Amino acid sequence: MYKLEIKLILTVIIATMMSSCETKDSKILSDKTNSIYSEKVDSIISLMTLDEKIGQLNLPATGPITTGSSKSTDVVEKIKEGKIGVLFNLKDPKNIYEVQKIAVEKSRLGIPLIFGMDVIHGFKTTFPIPLGLSCSWDLEMIEKTAKIARSEASANGINWTFSPMVDISRDPRWGRVSEGNGEDPYLGSEIARAMVRGYQQNDLSANNTLMACVKHFALYGAVEAGRDYNTVDMSRIRMYNEYLPPYKVAIEEGVGSVMVAFNEIDGVPATGNKWLLTDLLRDDWGFDGFVVSDYTGIYEMMEHGMGDEYMVTSLALKAGLDMDMAGDSPHIDVAYIKQLKGALDQGKISMEHIDRAVGRVLKAKFQLGLFDDPYKYCSLERAKQETYTQKNRDYARLVGAESMVLLKNKNQLSPLKKSGTISVIGPLAKASNNMPGTWSVSTDHEKAISVWDGLKESVGDQVNLLYAKGSNITKDLDLEKRVTMFGKDIPRDGRTDQQLLNEAIAVANKSDVIIATIGESSEFSGESSSRTNLKIPDVQKDLLNALLKTGKPVVLVLFTGRPLNIVEENKKVPAILNAWFPGSEAGLSISDVLFGDVNPSGKLTMTFPRNVGQLPLFYNHKNTGRPLGNSEGKFEKFKSNYLDVRNEPLYPFGYGLSYTTFKYGDLTLDKTSITKNDELKVSVDITNTGDYDGKEIAQLYIRDVVGTVTRPVRELKGFQKIFIKKGETVTVTFNISVEDLKFYNSNLDFVAEPGVFQVAIAPSSDFEFKKSFELID
Ligand code: BGC
Predict the structure, then answer these.
(1) How far apart are CA 582 and CA 579, in angstroms?
(2) CB of residue 152 inside a 6 A radius of ligand 1
(3) pLDDT tens digits along 253-292
(4) Model pTM above 0.90
(5) Integer Cα distance of 228 and 178 in angstroms
(6) Mean pLDDT of the chain
(7) Probe target for ligand 1 pocket from 527, 528, 529, 530, with the most ligand atoms within 8 Å of CB
(8) What is the DSSP string of 658-695?
């Protein structure tokens, strides 16, 4: 291991205090450990100049720094002057080691740096995009993906990840739905918990864990019209019941840091919102980690209309925002590093405000064990042994397959036979660099396995595989540029659309089955990638129609970072497998599902609409005073519906097919009423009635029929993913307690109100309640 090198002054302070330091078995942020850190932190703060203090709050936008160039950039000068506390998106442990060495050896106090990164769904080994991953509904698996990510990232010098993103999202026009876990607060909360656990493992000081950063606090998923960075305006009651739960759970799980959202809340940008960052987050929820802005978020408060550079920096600091991300960048003149000193002189902030923020950042450095050994995360040996290993890749292959959702499978077209001739057609068939999906900054995109390569490897010796590109991603050259950036180029084919089609049709005609690899390229979703048209892009639609016209059976392997409007495809295409962006081993994962080596079991965590005009569309909506009821799709005047499209989605939340079929028996309840101290058992027999062993995700829903405030028509309250052999029956049981019946009322008290509750265990959110019970006082 590397030699511990810390300035003498710190060594003395730490040595006297280390004896009482205990972090291992307790919750990371318990009061006990806090008070121990407080003493150490205060001692360091007492030695710091004002510049050094403000430096700790500075997370600059540096761009890539390499060992060679780092010595000459002004970033290095700033590190030496103690004007940088944290860096992000630096790659290569050797490089990070060098930069850390500068901080430790060349700055006056030798305070080590934190190294952050967007390790969102894997590091080098990439798992499906988070929305895809959530469709596995497999919490253990999700936690394990975070564990693999943290072990790879931490070996490569990273100790802080900007994940999990837990923004509830109900509007697929917003490109960032791809980064979250869909529309449901219960499932979203469970996933938030699993991710934080996976990263932090309850021991931040270990050299193979990462500090997590829950984001984007808060409500970012509710941007108006699905346009990124747009305004959010929401009632408190909706916030508390529907949007805040996943962040709160992450805090309860001990997440070390919180990233603030770009949007406003109650008319005040989250970045400077004291109610959000202090009253709610710290006073109500007890969070005691540090809070970081999102990229240039402080500067953006000027654009929001919150005042000049001194006003916005003071507003942020006083609200409880500790660290400034990317304010210190060449094109921005508003940053803690630039204005806090002046704001202090002007009396807009006090030294206590600065010390409070500095203390939180230093505490994180203690928690990460950086004062103990600043180089502990830079292990070339570990990096070599633990990164992108065959074992990790095998796991990614499995996770990719478990996250896919079979949307349609007419006449059991899939699983395909491993024989005959199969044509693989579409612009995404060979696009390996697109397979990891959006927000995969640390992976080697070109190494990901394309559909073509995956099929070749797994069935190439049994199946005669043919290929044609068939079309470009879109006709629109400008759009094409925007959706193939960040190293995810899909080279444009110089042939005309018709030439490409002709070739595809000729190839298709030679095959027994067509696999159409079609949909969004990966940068169609993610940040700043909102869409108003959620259809499959123009030329690809033409291609699909031409392939269908050949009369050959078509399996559509759909790539997408969001629910799409595929009403037409649902009518015409016999089999549709939603692959999302499956990660490093995409082609193998897809092959496993298409040929039945893995029986698909994923279920949607976001509703697929029929029409953009329905958005936002989600299963746990309110009833309204004029509900349409079961009109079987027919319009009814003066009811809550549309003239031109039915209310129901194309595919509801919780929906997904298997190669086998499951039959649900009648629901049984062990009693018809419970008190506040009781539990109710609800059970159902599920029989695998098909020809394959398979996994089913059984979902528990309730409806609170009468409330002091209106309640959703159904809410997910539990789920179990169970394996059932063909022909077998398994009894699935859930316990319901009063905790499951609670919600925030109009006083924002978390209560369960006595009365009737409907209950069901169902294969998706599309069902009718048949049973109920009563909660009695
Ligand atoms: C995104 C964050 C991300 C940050 C750092 C921002 O633009 O909104 O999600 O973590 O950049 O890359």
Answers:
(1) 6
(2) no
(3) 999 999 999 999 999 999 999 999 999 999 999 999 999 9
(4) yes
(5) 13
(6) 94
(7) 527
(8) -SS-EEE---EES-SEE-TT-EEEEEEEEEE-SSS-EE
Q: Compute, in angstroms, the gap from residue 439 CA to the centroid of ligand 1.
A: 9
118 lines ligand 1 (CB under 6 A): yes
Closest to 756 in 3D by CA, of 691, 677, 685, 702: 702
CA of 294 to the centre of ligand 1 (A): 6
Q: Is the beta carbon of 215 within 6 A of some atom in ligand 1?
A: yes
pLDDT of residue 26: 33
Domain at 660-777: CATH code = 2.60.40.10
DSSP track, 597-632:
SS------SSPBPS-GGG-S--TT----SS---S-T
295 Cβ below 6 A of ligand 1: yes
Ligand 1 atom closest to the CA of 441, numbered from 1:
12
* Whether the CB of 527 sits within 6 Å of ligand 1: yes
Query: Catalytic residues, which ones?
Result: 294
If you measure from the C-alpha of residue 584 to the centroid of ligand 1, how many angstroms do you get, rounded to a whole number?
22
Continuous segment of H or E residues that includes residue 467? strand 464-468
8 Å CB contact between 421 and 455: no
Nearest alpha carbon to residue 563 among 242, 262, 118, 129: 129
pLDDT in tens, 387-431: 999 999 999 999 999 999 999 999 999 999 999 999 999 999 999
**Per CATH, domain 400-594 is 3.40.50.1700:** yes
pLDDT value of residue 142: 98
Give Cα 560 distance to the centre of its chain.
15
Angle between helices 336-345 and 309-319 (to 10 degrees): 90
Instruction: Of 87-101, 127-141, 587-601, give the lowest mean pLDDT range.
Output: 87-101
Whose alpha carbon is nearest atom 6 of ligand 1?
295
* Ligand 1 atom, smallest distance to 165 CA: 9
What pLDDT, in 10s, does the model give residues 428-459?
Answer: 999 999 999 999 999 999 999 999 999 999 99
Ligand 1 contacts CB of residue 162 (under 6 A): yes
- How would residue 70 be classed by pLDDT, with cut points 50, 70 and 90? very low
CA 577 / ligand 1 centre spacing (Å) = 30
Where are the chain's structural domains? 400-594, 660-777
Q: Does residue 13 register a pLDDT over 90?
A: no
CA of 74 to the centre of ligand 1 (A): 23
Query: What's the CA gap between 606 and 317, in Å, rounded?
Result: 36
